[in-house]
User: Fold this.
Amino acid sequence: MQYQTLGKTGLRVSEIGYGGGRVRPEHDEKSIANMIHYAIEVGINYIDTAPTYGSGYSETVIGKAIADRREACIVATKTEAYHPDGIPADLEGSLRRLNTDYIDILQFHGGWFYEKEADQIINGSGLDTYLKLKEEGKIRFIGFSADGPSGGTEQLIATGKFDMMQIHYNLIYQSTCDTFGKRGVIPDAVAQDMGIVLMRSTTSNVFQNLMKRCFPNEMANVDVDSFLLNYSLSNPMVNVALMSLQNTDDVDWTNAVSDNVNARLDLRAIHGR
Assistant:
């Protein structure tokens, strides 16, 4: 497993992160825990979850799985509350479910941040509440998750107060990082020394489904998942690519892609720059 420094946090994070978004009550708790234990053993240390994932089930299962491995993990979760009255309550719920007394990274859980949402966070004391919780030691670093670029996302970045950003980026989703034009919210965030964590690192099967539908014979023996993950990791601004690891085989192949640094692509050359 290769490691990166997550922006100004100084945290050494595994390039592959475990994304707990698909952990649902219908999934076997013991199997998930065994997979997480294996992932930690082979070097994955970044774990992302949220209270809304499985209505708290994701945090609960992860909390049990890392109970005796807490110091080996960098745990990131989120709050849907932007208002100072709701943020502490959301955080206390996460602390309880994760069975820990601190969160490494707390993020405003966003989709598309518009001016209203950004104003609530920046001028409605949401950001101040996060910073206060950071001072109290309940959280170590702060960030936000966003589905894509927007005026609100740009406003949050421009504050210079956030330590990291979790956002979409992959082969078919380029709007957050325009390699050709050297623009986008990812370069903007990096300019503020923010760490970058990716969602939908391998297109959430959109590219795979498209290729298999259009070129079923040609794609039969192509390892599309590794190709897509390598593309995302080839962007030097990326620190962590979250993956919804389902079993130990997923841990092994994603780990192998991370370690195969000689396969990394020159994205600037590919994009004509």
